Write a sequence for this structure.
């Protein structure tokens, strides 16, 4: 048995799916299944109850193994934080906020000469970001949460030993082309978008929108939805379809992004507020490269930066 096998097991348990867990771990599904089978053979019992769709839960002994594994990962994380890091290692999970992407790009430029560079960014929704933090697959997560879901998410973070730090809260905006007939409006109302197409970027797994947002989309454009694979394509489609395309933003894109694609962000008149924050394991100090990323992210968001107490700078 090794720590990697434990991480694999916890990922499968969090996602309730070998396929989704494999995606989050950047490995193939057959490799993940084989690793867990080998662990079960070594333990002498099955950890998961399997069915045609994947898994339906844990066995009795499997549940105890999962409980002990969660404790082990917390202890392992604490030991890792004591280690001197000679490698520029930083794994980020982020929702689709352009400032988070821009800060990561600037960080990569700063450390690009490091021969031991090991960094990645994983675009995902809030649940996947939290799951990656729990399984130690990511050091830091940037999450955007709608106001009516905030209380539930704070409870979820606390229950899973995850620290949440709010960066900013802002009203949701609508991003459209500068050439759009709606571009001159001070506020865009739901009825203004009735015949428009909603463009969104598809993450590793799309989170469900809140009931409030889903209901609005159902009224405005029940069939007109396009999911694309990256931010560039999303903004290009919005820019080149001024008569009919838009996207929602929890935080308005940076001025540079708006200028690059010929877009404008206008307040959405439905009174929906989004909270942008970052998450990390509660018992793990942030390393210097993670702290530097947060400093760059604060600059991108034009908000003051105060280093976390107890973090390694």
């Amino acid at each position: 048995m090794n720590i990697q096998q434990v991480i694999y097991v916890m990922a499968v348990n969090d996602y309730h799916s070998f396929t989704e867990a494999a995606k989050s771990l950047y490995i193939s599904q057959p490799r993940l299944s084989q690793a867990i089978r080998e662990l079960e053979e070594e333990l002498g019992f099955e950890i998961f109850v399997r069915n045609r769709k994947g898994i339906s839960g844990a066995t009795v002994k499997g549940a105890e193994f999962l409980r002990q594994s969660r404790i082990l990962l917390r202890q392992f994380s604490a030991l890792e934080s004591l280690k001197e890091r000679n490698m520029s290692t930083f794994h980020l999970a982020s929702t689709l906020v352009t400032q988070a992407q821009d800060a990561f790009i600037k960080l990569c430029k700063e450390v690009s000469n490091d021969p031991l560079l090991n960094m990645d960014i994983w675009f995902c929704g809030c649940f996947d970001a939290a799951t990656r933090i729990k399984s130690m697959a990511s050091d830091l997560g940037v999450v955007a949460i709608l106001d009516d879901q905030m209380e539930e998410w704070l409870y979820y973070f606390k229950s899973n030993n995850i620290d949440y730090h709010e960066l900013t809260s802002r009203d949701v905006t609508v991003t459209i082309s500068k050439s759009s007939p709606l571009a001159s409006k001070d506020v865009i109302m739901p009825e203004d978008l009735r015949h428009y197409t909603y463009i969104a970027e598809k993450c590793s797994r799309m989170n469900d929108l809140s009931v409030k947002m889903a209901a609005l989309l159902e009224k405005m454009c029940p069939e007109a939805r396009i999911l694309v694979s990256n931010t560039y394509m999303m903004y290009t489609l919005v820019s080149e379809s001024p008569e009919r395309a838009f996207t929602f933003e929890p935080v308005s894109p940076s001025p540079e992004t708006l200028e690059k694609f010929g877009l404008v962000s206008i307040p959405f008149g439905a009174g929906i507020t989004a909270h942008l924050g970052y998450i990390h394991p509660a018992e793990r100090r942030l390393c210097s490269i993670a702290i530097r990323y947060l400093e760059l992210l604060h600059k991108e968001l034009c908000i003051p930066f105060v280093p976390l107490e107890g973090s390694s700078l």
Notes: Residues 60-82 form the longest helix (23 residues). The two ends are 34 Å apart (CA to CA).
